[in-house]
């Protein structure tokens, strides 16, 4: 520190000089905080240190994966369609083959049925042969006014046709057939090949109280008992021609 002398003071001017040492002041950062953490090596963190965190995909990766999956599905659908078409083609081929075989079998069966349904009448025969021949047509359709196996016949048409195969000509109606040949007194005396007829029905006796006859459109040509044939219940005539 310096002070003015007397001479200087007497002259009316004062000069003062002060000097202070430089002091460096450290500023404290009150907002800074020091943290120290110590980890115990034996600490148990509940398994969090071993968690398997899945890796996430980017948008580009997800789009690429979706496109690949769609392509695979499309290829699988196309392959399935090709296999289905091939299987259908093979199935159709098998069906065509089976249909051809069925047609051939049916043709053979039809021919066999026709042959079975058309037994050959003996060149010369008796009533028993005629009765046996007539039974070969069981199942033939009933057709009103018909007198041939195809398309069918009614009761008197059946009797007339069977006898014609043995060279015997009979009248067309059942009432007329009830008067041909020789009368047989009773059913107990009837023999196979006799005609049993009245004005409503005609049949061929085959023995044991049974007849073969064309009944109606529902039943066709069948074997029935005389006693159970409704159209013969009002009375009938037994006629022997052979």
Provide structural commentary:
The protein is an alpha+beta fold. Among the domains are: 71-116; 127-240, endopeptidase domain like (from Nostoc punctiforme) (endopeptidase fold (from Nostoc punctiforme)), CATH 3.90.1720. Helix content is 36%, strand content 13%. It is built from 5 helices and 8 strands, in the order H-H-H-E-E-H-H-E-E-E-E-E-E. A 6-stranded antiparallel β-sheet has the order 3-8-4-5-6-7. Strand 6 (210-216) and strand 7 form a beta hairpin. It starts with 5 loop residues before the first helix and ends with a strand. Keywords: Hydrolase, Protease, Thiol protease. This is NlpC/P60 domain protein. Residues 66-88 have a biased composition (Low complexity).
- Cα-atom radius of gyration: 62 Å
What fold name goes in the CATH topology slot of the domain at 127-240? endopeptidase fold (from Nostoc punctiforme)
Low-confidence stretches: 107-115
Shape: rod-shaped
In the CATH classification, which architecture of the domain at 127-240 applies? Answer: Alpha-Beta Complex
Estimated helix fraction: 25-40%
CATH class of the domain at 127-240: Alpha Beta
Main beta-sheet annotation:
6 strands, antiparallel
Mean pLDDT: 79
| Number of distinct helices | 5
The CA-CA distance between the termini, in Å, is: 184 Å
Number of strands: 8
The succession of helices and strands, N to C, reads: HHHEEHHEEEEEE
Strand coverage percent? 5-15%
CATH superfamily of the domain at 127-240: endopeptidase domain like (from Nostoc punctiforme)
Strand order within the widest beta sheet: 3-8-4-5-6-7
Q: Helix/strand/pairing class, anyone? A: alpha+beta
């Amino acid at each position: 520190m310096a002070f003015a002398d007397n001479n200087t003071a007497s002259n009316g001017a004062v000069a003062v000089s002060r000097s202070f040492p430089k002091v460096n002041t450290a500023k404290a950062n009150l907002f800074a905080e020091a943290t120290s953490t110590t980890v115990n090596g034996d600490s148990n963190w509940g398994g969090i240190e071993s968690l398997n965190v899945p890796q996430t995909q980017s948008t580009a990766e997800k789009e690429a994966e979706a496109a690949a999956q769609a392509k695979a599905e499309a290829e699988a659908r196309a392959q399935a369609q090709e296999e289905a078409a091939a299987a259908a083609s093979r199935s159709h081929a098998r069906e065509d083959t089976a249909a051809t075989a069925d047609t051939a079998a049916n043709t053979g069966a039809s021919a066999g049925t026709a042959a079975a349904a058309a037994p050959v009448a003996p060149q010369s025969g008796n009533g028993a042969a005629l009765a046996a021949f007539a039974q070969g047509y069981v199942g033939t359709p009933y057709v009103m006014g018909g007198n041939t196996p195809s398309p069918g016949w009614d009761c008197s048409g059946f009797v007339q046709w069977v006898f014609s195969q043995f060279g015997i000509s009979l009248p067309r109606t059942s009432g007329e057939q009830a008067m041909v040949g020789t009368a047989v007194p009773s059913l107990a005396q009837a023999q196979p090949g006799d005609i049993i007829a009245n004005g409503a029905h005609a049949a061929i006796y085959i023995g044991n109280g049974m007849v073969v006859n064309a009944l109606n459109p529902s039943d066709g040509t069948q074997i029935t008992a005389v006693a159970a044939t409704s159209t013969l219940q009002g009375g009938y005539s037994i006629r022997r021609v052979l």
